[in-house]
């Protein structure tokens, strides 16, 4: 049997890393308080409770902190700590650059048809200049009225506009494709905010939560699991919904001050559902999102999820935000084989279509 680690030191290291990453204060306090609790227990009581599985019955310890203590006492690096440490490396430039070069397109972008600032044609011309092979147009769905979400009628019209743009591109010999899509709202009951018939016609569907972000963890988990199970959803967008006030130009290691905290949900359950059903977890590149946080991104990676790295661009210049997501992906060990938008457009579309068969 491996020699026991120091569970108090492990818990305090976790608290330190969470605090440094700007995680929620209550989470930091939970680990720091658990460290104090364990420090007050005698070695005999600690060993006895670990042996009979009652660590989580000790006041001051919860399921997660008790699991960390048990792992430490077995001589194992706690999984929670390992995931945090796995995102602490700084020499990621080469890996991030390689990942950026591997990307063939962007699966999440908005135009002035919803809350974007520029016409579709300008977004397309910018994507071409950046070397993209394709761009998925994902304006908002109707429930998000503040973003001028597309009604069924307007979405149908947009699909026709996209077809016309692609006709023009082919006529001019431009090897670029604009793909139809939508960022559809995940509603309170987990349903998607657009008709099944229209969603089935689109090339790629991103689903995101934009309302009720402070729902309790159980409700949010049920909501997200139902959405992921929907055959029309391909990509789970900015999964925690957090917003950041960026205070550093180093997006991979940014010390972010939150303007909206992340939603609470059972990340393991949601990521496992994505993996099992072949859906992608989005690595959102927006500097005010950088979602999911590194700890959750690493967790999704270890579970075996597929990813997309997307800008969520609302203006042409924002289409060049892909490096920010690549930095975080590289930091968390994500390689090109696990990123769907490193695929050619045909393969991406076949993958998306396979969910609704």
Features of the shown structure:
357 residues, alpha/beta, DNA polymerase, domain 1, seven-stranded parallel sheet, two-stranded antiparallel sheet, 44% helix, 12% strand, elongated
Brief synopsis:
The chain is an alpha/beta fold. It is about 45% helix and about 10% strand.
Write the layout of secondary structure elements.
Layout: H1 7-20, H2 25-40, H3 43-52, H4 63-73, H5 79-85, H6 93-102, E1 105-109, H7 120-129, E2 134-137, H8 152-171, E3 177-185, H9 196-201, E4 204-208, H10 217-229, E5 235-236, E6 243-245, E7 257-260, H11 267-276, E8 280-284, H12 294-303, E9 306-310, H13 322-331, H14 345-354
Parallel strand pairs: 1-2, 2-3, 3-4, 4-5, 5-8, 8-9
Antiparallel strand pairs: 6-7
Provide an overview of this structure.
The protein is built from 14 helices and nine strands. It has 357 residues and is α/β, with parallel strands linked by helices. It folds into two domains: 7-85, Orthogonal Bundle (DNA polymerase, domain 1), CATH 1.10.150; 93-354, Metal-dependent hydrolases (TIM Barrel). β4 (204-208), α10 (217-229) and β5 (235-236) form a beta-alpha-beta unit. The longest helix is centred in the middle third of the chain and has 20 residues, at 152-171.
